[in-house]
């Protein structure tokens, strides 16, 4: 089982509604889609909202229904933002884009996995931590092709449609992984840069046991970059964090755990003998891109 940083239940943030959404801030809520979260950024019942990530395959209807309740029936987002392109974050993307016909933004380094031209490196079933890791070779890693709607995130780190948010490049779990940060209230959308449950464990994935963990081990391809990303996010001193896996958390207990993860990352997060520990797959040397045959 993966090492962990226990979390006091008082650090959990937000109350889950009857529709499965959790209100994190007046203009931020999230919803779990089986194993991964999607986020809704925007003031309820106003146009111009933004969706972050697109969940697992088959979740399009649930995402649309949650959006309709929050923003109104037939009110599409201004855009979809992606933290990265792994299967559990883009499963419903094509279906949603065909319905909404809005731009989708990702980091330029992540775009080969979203325009049909590259597959992710193989999963690491030897990374340890539980059943999800053992099953990881069965998870899809082929690219989706949404090039019709795909746009690069701006180089100035601004977030299209959200003037008070900024993009932070947080590679490691994937080469173009990004997080989103709002300084005025300390809200951090961390994607899979770190998680608030154990994504390698089927039990923890089902029960959402609150623990602070590094990125999902089975799909993380550059552990040094992942460590640097966690250190960078911890230095922000966030007040509220929403991750791709697990429940939102807030406050000093969360920050203490996040700094503990950053300080002891090699012990708490990096798998012993994982295939990418000594053989990272990095964008700069081209090894992160596995072109389709």
UniProtKB/TrEMBL annotation:
Residues 35-245 form the Metallo-beta-lactamase domain. It comes from the Bacteria. This is MBL fold metallo-hydrolase. It holds the Pfam family Lactamase_B.
